[in-house]
Amino acid sequence: MRDSSNDDGLNATIHPDGSAVLVVDETPHAISTTSAEDARREIVRLTAQIARQLDTPIRVIVTEPDGTWPLVVDGDEHVEFAAEGGDPGAYGSAPRADAADAQPARPDAAPPAPTRAAAQAADDDAPAMRPVRSGSAGPVRGSATPRPAHDARVVRPERETFLTSAHEQDDREDPATRGFRGAMTRMGIRMAPGAEERSERADQMAVANHWPGPRTIAVVNGKGGSGKTPTTILLAAVFARFGGAGVLAWDNNQTRGTLGWRTEQGPHEATLHDMLEASDHLLSTEAQAADVANFVHHQRQDRFDVLRSQPIALASEQRVSAEDVDRIHSVAARYYRLIVMDSGNDESDPLWQRMIDHTDQLVIATTTRDEHAEAGALLLDALTERDERSAALARNAVSVVSQADQRSTGAEMRRIVDGYKQLTRDVVQVPFDPAMIGGHLHYSALRPGTQRAWLAAAASVARGFQAS
C-alpha cells in the first residue's frame, strides 16, 4: 500500500477517558467510545469509509496521551505505519493477499543457457548417425541395438524443496506487542514493531545464545560497595532467564563475600569449601549432573545457581589458594555453560589474579561516586600493564554504572559514563531502583526501566563473547 499525494489528511485525537475526535476538512466529528482500543478501531473504520469514497489511501495522524502515530488507511481497512516524511511501507504491515509473488517474464529475454549436465545428457540421448550402406535408400539413423524409451540416464529438472529454510524462518518478524503498534496488533491489524521493541528483541536474542564451551565473566572493582555483587546477581539472572539453565554465580572472595546474603539459600549450608573437598568425585566419571546440587544454592525465581563463600568465618579460616580456584573452576566448567564470578577488593591476592586468568569477559562495576569510578579506572590501568591477555580483557571490558544514590544528578552520571567510554568497549547506565537496596535481589522486582538496563548490560557482555 502506498501513500497518496492527498494533502487533505485527517487528524484524530484519543482522550484519556477513551473518547476521541476525528477532524475532517477542519470539521471535528466526536467519537463516543470508552476505551482507547475501541477509539482506534472506529478511527480506522471512518477513515476507510473516506478512502473508499475517494478511491485512494488516506493519511491520518492519531494523537494519544503517550504519543503521535502517523498512519495510512485504505478502503479495505488495511493500516500501515508511516514515519513523518518517510515511506509508509518502511514499517508496513503484512503484504496484501492479492500481491503478485512472481515477476512476469520479459518477452525479449533469451532462454537460459543449458547446464553442462543437461548438454551432456542431450548428447548422450541424441540418435547416432551410421554410414550409408551400398544399395540403401538413404541414411539409417540409430544403433544396432535401440535404447529403451525409458532411458535411466535422462536428467530430471531440479525440484524446489517443500521445506522452509531455517534462514527464512529466522527472518520472519513477530508483530508488535508494545504501545500503539501492539494495540493495533491486538485489534487484528498486524503491525511491525518499532525501533525500541526491535532493539530489545535483539538484546534478548544476544543473551539467549549458547557458545561452544563454557564462558567466564569476572565482575571487578577494587573498591567495596561499588556494586559488584548486585551486578553479578543480575547478570546471572538475565542470562538464565533468557538463555536457559546452566548459569552459576560464584562468590570468589577471601574476605566475607556477601553474594550469599543477597540470594536465596538452598536446603543446605554448603559453600565453595565443601565443593572443593568433593571435587575429586565431581570430576570423576561416576559423578552425575544432579550431584552438584549438593553444593550450590538454586535461585527459584531467576533460575541460576549460587556458589557461596563463608561470610561469617574469618578470612584466615577459609583461605583459598590459586590452585583451589583452578580446581573449583574445573568443576564449575564441567557443570555450567556460564560462570559469573563476584570478586573481592584485593587485586594482589592470588585468588583474584587466578580469576582473571580464567576470565573471558571483564565487567567493571561502579556507581556514580568518584571513589568507585576512580578505583575501577585504576584497576583497568593495572590490567593493561599486567600482561597481553589482561590488557585485551581491559580493552574489551563492559562498564556498568549504577545510580546507587537517588540524589545523584544526571550530570554526575554523564561525567562517569563519558569517562568510561574512553576506557572500555561499552558502558551501560543503570537507573536508581529501590529494589536494589538491601535484602534478596530479584530481577522481577525491578522497575521496567531497570530491567531493560540490565538486559542491555548482559547483551553487551554476550556480544563480547561473539567477538572473541
What is the overall silhouette?
elongated
Termini separation: 44 Å
Poorly predicted spans? 1-6, 84-145
Radius of gyration: 33 Å
The biggest beta sheet, please? Answer: 8 strands, mixed
CATH class of the largest domain: Alpha Beta
**The CATH superfamily title of the largest domain:** P-loop containing nucleotide triphosphate hydrolases
The total of beta strands comes to 14
Element order, helices and strands? EEEHEEEHHHHEHEHHEEHEHEHHEHEH
Total helical segments: 14
CATH topology of the largest domain: Rossmann fold
The percentage of residues in β strands lies in 15-25%
Q: Percent helix among the residues?
A: 25-40%
Strand order of the largest sheet: 9-10-8-11-7-12-13-14
Structural notes for this entry:
- The protein has 14 helices and 14 strands.
- It is an alpha/beta fold.
- A hairpin with a 5-residue loop joins β5 and β6.
- α5 crosses α6, α6 crosses α14 and α11 packs antiparallel against α12.
- Helices cover about 35% and strands about 15% of the residues.
- It has an eight-stranded mixed β-sheet, with helices on both faces.
